[in-house]
User: Which sequence fits this backbone?
């Protein structure tokens, strides 16, 4: 079983009840720990709780994250 810990995160709200969360997370399992950056899309339920639709994990290497950010900015 893997547990996830959010180290730091920010949320961007858009549309009526949607959000994108960008977070630095830590996956903790019996095999050890692994830090990564995730981008998750979700929405709020009527009671205000969050529901996630999709998520992607980005590489830890700063150069790769910068390359991805640059590609996004050019679109």
Assistant:
């Amino acid at each position: 079983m893997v547990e996830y810990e959010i180290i730091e995160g920010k949320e961007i709200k858009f549309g009526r009840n949607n959000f994108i969360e960008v977070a630095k997370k830590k996956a903790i399992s019996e095999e050890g720990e692994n830090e990564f950056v995730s981008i998750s899309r979700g929405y709020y339920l009527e009671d205000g709780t969050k529901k996630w639709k999709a998520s992607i994990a980005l590489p830890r290497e700063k150069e790769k994250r910068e390359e991805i950010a640059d590609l996004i900015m050019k679109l």
Summary: The chain has one domain: 3-74. The domain at 3-74 is CATH 3.10.450 (Nuclear Transport Factor 2; Chain: A,). The two ends are 38 Å apart (CA to CA).
